[in-house]
């Protein structure tokens, strides 16, 4: 059996007297690799509709009150009409550690579209003094004592009770002010960390704007806008999703080119292949292609080792040939390889690779990113294990399997009871990376 010793650690979601363990799951478990462990991404979308997820309001120098259809972010250098936006979300539905989070806003009114002087920078703050999360948000909150406000600044928050999470600019229109209907998806590493640090099921944000630009208006769709979507908080764990799997096994000494007809699937953005084979010393280069495009080695196969290969943006138009060419290998007694196509995977090489050989056959790998996809391959005499495959590959047994949603940290993958263990290779691949700013729809 292959035992995977896993320790899944998630951040604490609540720090209440009930000690509710929503984000901290310290789980030690042994999983037989014959069972697929695939934790797909969870996504939570929270709108600011009053009473159904959150509320928006604004801070006004002159105490002006506007309806809930839209709210202002305006800088008049502390003169009457200077306004900051505020948004609060009920985050009780987020019961996992987020890898990606985004604040989605829709421009409902902006002056001088196409004019360069109306593309000011928007500052996004998160309230860290969680006592302020209990202050009711309304339109026209008093400027002097609005929660988290820096009354001496036309755009900044009070850093004693709030934290700057990042900035964005409405400059996607050729460097000029973007038009009404523009959707901003703001995210940053600090924004994600802020969501994960929340412990009272409320997240409050303040938006301020630099640059006076006379009396130029910028409004975002509010709680009850009739045309545009209200502000939303999108949070997910962004594990890569497994689209399709396939296998090829041949216990033969006659062939050196092995072809599997494999459909990566229309949504796939990465293909990962694990190759295990029984070959003699003096093995030459092994070439792996999909639909004629070469895969890159995260760890090269040589002799009795186990190789891992990947291809970003594989062909997704239907079934195509996945070919392993061992022509330059001296002798091949047999081969087995597994293919897994992923969606939502980060581009590029494996984030970590670990290998080991001999007895006992186990390997430690330090997975650097949360919610990673980990794939393992094994080669030994006298032992068989199945997840994607576990079969005779000539004069040895080979196998391959995967685990999804793997938390960051050290992991041990272990084979037990192998008669003559040879090699194990484990590689981790990231999901889509956090901290990307998606400004425009």
What this model shows, in words?
With 441 residues, the protein is mostly beta strands. The chain folds into 2 domains: 2-40 and 239-429, no CATH class; 44-236, Jelly Rolls (Sandwich). The protein has one helix at residues 189-197, and strands spanning 2-8, 27-32, 43-47, 54-60, 70-72, 83-90, 100-110, 121-127, 141-142, 162-169, 183-186, 202-209, 218-221, 232-236, 241-250, 257-263, 270-279, 287-290, 293-294, 296-299, 306-312, 319-325, 332-343, 352-357, 362-367, 372-381, 389-392, 397-406, 409-415, 420-429. The strands form 6 sheets. Strands 3, 5, 7, 11, 13 and 14 form a 6-stranded antiparallel β-sheet that branches. It is elongated. The model is unreliable at 1-41, 49-53 and 433-441 (pLDDT under 50).
Walk me through the topology.
Blueprint: E1 2-8, E2 27-32, E3 43-47, E4 54-60, E5 70-72, E6 83-90, E7 100-110, E8 121-127, E9 141-142, E10 162-169, E11 183-186, H1 189-197, E12 202-209, E13 218-221, E14 232-236, E15 241-250, E16 257-263, E17 270-279, E18 287-290, E19 293-294, E20 296-299, E21 306-312, E22 319-325, E23 332-343, E24 352-357, E25 362-367, E26 372-381, E27 389-392, E28 397-406, E29 409-415, E30 420-429
Parallel strand pairs: 4-9
Antiparallel strand pairs: 1-2, 1-29, 3-14, 4-6, 5-13, 6-12, 7-11, 7-13, 7-14, 8-10, 8-12, 15-23, 16-22, 17-21, 17-23, 18-19, 18-22, 20-21, 24-30, 25-29, 26-28, 26-30, 27-28
Give the number of DSSP strands: 30
* Ends distance: 48 Å
Instruction: Give the overall shape, derived from the CA principal axes.
Output: elongated
Largest beta-sheet details: 6 strands, antiparallel
Unreliable sequence segments: 1-41, 49-53, 433-441
Quaternary structure type: single chain
Count of helical regions: 1
Summed over residues and divided by their number, the pLDDT gives a mean of 74
Taken as a percent bin, the fraction of beta residues is over 45%
Radius of gyration: 27 Å
Q: How much helicity do the residues have?
A: under 10%
Based on secondary structure, the structural category is mainly beta
């Amino acid at each position: 059996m292959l035992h995977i010793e896993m320790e899944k650690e998630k951040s604490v979601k609540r720090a209440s007297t009930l000690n509710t363990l929503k984000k901290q799951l310290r789980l030690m478990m042994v999983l037989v690799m014959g069972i697929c462990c695939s934790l797909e991404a969870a996504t939570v979308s929270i709108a600011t509709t009053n009473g159904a997820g959150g509320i928006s309001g604004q801070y006004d120098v002159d105490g002006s009150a506007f309806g809930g259809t839209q709210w202002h972010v305006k800088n008049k250098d502390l003169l009457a009409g200077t306004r900051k936006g505020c948004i609060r979300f009920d985050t009780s539905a987020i019961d996992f550690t987020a890898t990606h989070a985004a604040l989605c806003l829709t421009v409902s009114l902006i002056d001088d579209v196409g004019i360069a002087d109306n593309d000011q920078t928007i500052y996004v703050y998160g309230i860290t003094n969680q006592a302020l999360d209990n202050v009711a948000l309304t339109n026209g909150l008093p400027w002097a004592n609005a929660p988290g406000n820096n009354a001496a600044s036309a755009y900044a928050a009070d850093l004693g009770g709030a934290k700057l999470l990042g900035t964005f600019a409405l400059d996607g229109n050729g460097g000029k002010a973007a038009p009404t209907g523009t959707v901003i998806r703001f995210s940053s590493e600090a924004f994600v960390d802020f969501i994960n640090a929340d412990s009272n099921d409320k997240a409050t944000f303040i938006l301020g704007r630099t640059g006076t630009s006379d009396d130029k208006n910028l409004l975002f769709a509010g709680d009850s806008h009739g045309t545009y979507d209200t502000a939303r908080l999108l949070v997910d764990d962004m594990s890569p999703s497994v689209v399709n799997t396939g296998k090829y096994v041949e216990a033969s000494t006659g062939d050196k080119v092995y072809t599997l007809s494999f459909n990566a699937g229309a949504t796939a953005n990465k293909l990962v292949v694990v190759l295990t084979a029984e070959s003699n010393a003096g093995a030459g280069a092994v070439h792996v292609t999909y639909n004629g495009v070469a895969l890159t080695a995260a760890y090269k196969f040589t002799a009795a080792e186990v190789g891992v290969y990947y291809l970003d943006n594989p062909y997704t138009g239907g079934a195509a040939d996945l070919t392993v060419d061992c022509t330059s290998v001296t002798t091949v007694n047999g081969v087995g390889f597994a293919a897994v196509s992923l969606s939502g995977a980060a581009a590029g090489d494996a984030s970590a690779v670990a290998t080991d050989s001999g007895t006992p056959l186990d390997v430690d790998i330090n997975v650097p990113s949360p919610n990673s996809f980990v794939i393992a391959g094994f080669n030994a005499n006298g032992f068989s294990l199945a997840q994607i495959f576990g079969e005779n590959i000539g004069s040895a047994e080979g196998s391959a399997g995967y685990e999804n949603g793997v938390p960051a940290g050290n992991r041990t993958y272990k084979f037990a009871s192998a008669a003559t263990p040879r090699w194990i290779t484990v590689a981790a691949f990231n999901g889509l990376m956090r901290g990307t700013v998606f400004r425009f729809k």
